[in-house]
Amino acid sequence: MTQHIPFIITAAYLVIAVVIGAGAGRGHNMRTVEGWGVGSRSMGPFVIYLLVAAGGVSAYTFMGSPGWAHDKGVPALYVVVYLAFMSFVAWHIGPKVWNFGRRFGHATQSTTITDRYESPLLGGLTAVVVSIGGIAYAVLQTIGSAYILNVMSFGLIPTWLGVILTLAVISIYLFRSGLRAIGFTNAFQGALMFIVSFMVGLWAVNWFTGGFDATPIFERLQQDAPEFLTLPGALGDMSYAFWTTSILISFFSIWQSHWISWMGAKSARSLKVATTYLPLYYLVLIPMIIVGFIGIFEYPDIAASDKVAIQLAVDNMPVIVAGLLGAGTLAASMSSSEPNIHATALTYSKDVLQPLFKLSNERTGRMTRWLIFPLMALIIAPISIMEPASLVYILLIGYGFTGQAFPIMIGIFYWPRATKVGALVGLIAGSIVTILFSFVFVHPLGIHAGIWGFAVNIPCFVIISLLTKPASDETLARYFTKSKKAAPAAD
């Protein structure tokens, strides 16, 4: 019976998530885009903090980053760097996004793009391109959830069944409560993940070294396997160029799910407070990367390195600690899968289907949450069951596509002269290059495919914008002139 305790604890989290998430929408109209999509803009700083933080700390933190530390070494630290940069973007741009949403009634990133550039075509195309990153991220998290259930059940639950179980649970509370379900489950998940990460990290260090000082781990690496401590890493496949450009493309990627989460805040001030402290939460990464370094010595021949932290816990840790790690890792993966499923369904309905079929706001609101089911059943589940690539590489490919919308963001916040034609040509050209350099000519010269996309996207965007007609004076005045009627920052 004792050996089943970790699985029981892990599975219990699924029940807790349903209870919290299903009740989160009580008192709010979930048949509208405003209610289901952005939680009626009603969430305070604590919930927003953990909504955004837990959404960034996902399956690759508890599985992918220990796996990279095990296989490659210090290249895994790229995650720490880019999350710090992303926190700065959230702090700087998030309140601007919230103000636009409140003043102009926006619910998604692409709704803002459509309004600013006066182009439903650009908004819809951006929704599709950016959704590639969101879907890749949802796939990554779903695979992570299935891995956890597989390991914790000692293989009783195969990966394909783990995928179905995870998506079924998410669908229950996501359909019922939308963004508020994500916010309230992430609040619980975020606290659980932070506690579990340090509990497991400290236990692993003490178990391996006899104390709580990690120095002996790195001293042994320096003596026995120094290639793990420098770029390009132990496998020799993470060059300085690829490591750096992976950070850059991550920094320039403003995710649809993050944008929608920012709009769910009660006020711009709540969002500012929440994003100020985001980097502190991301300390949660360090203990799990250290666990991956320990795995280099304890599991040198493990078949699936993404499972190294979970395997170490199941084999060596007390059953309660192992169970909490399983629950925490499952929480991490679900907390990042659900916002991307939600954001993709919302933007497809609002920014693609509504303008394409001339749907009313009421009909769009009723339809939006139903889209999560075909999205899960026809795209996310089949791809997840195939288990393509490693978890972190799936994420990196997703960033390449999401980043192609960054020049468009410059036109929203800083450059009135940006035009819809320039943005459209740049987006298409950059996306084509990203596809070619992700799957055909893979990362030429060791530079991330998304950065090559930028090299084509940005010149097209700037030059063609200068040669074509900008948006109307009325639209530009709304975006680049401070409005006296802007919503107040205070709660």
UniProtKB/TrEMBL annotation:
Domain of life: Bacteria
Catalysed conversion reaction: L-proline(in) + Na(+)(in) = L-proline(out) + Na(+)(out)
Keywords attached to this entry: Cell membrane, Ion transport, Membrane, Sodium, Sodium transport, Symport, Transmembrane, Transmembrane helix, Transport
Residue ranges of coiled coil: none
UniProt xrefs under InterPro entries: Na/Glc_symporter_sf, Na/solute_symporter, Sodium:Solute_Symporter
TM annotation in the entry: 6-25, 46-63, 75-94, 121-140, 146-175, 187-208, 240-260, 280-297, 309-332, 367-385, 391-414, 421-443, 449-468
Localization (cell): Cell membrane
Keyword Cell membrane found: yes
PROSITE patterns: NA_SOLUT_SYMP_3 (PS50283)
CDD domains: SLC5sbd (cd10322)
Any Pfam family hit: SSF
Record family assignment: Belongs to the sodium:solute symporter (SSF) (TC 2.A.21) family.
Protein name: Sodium:solute symporter
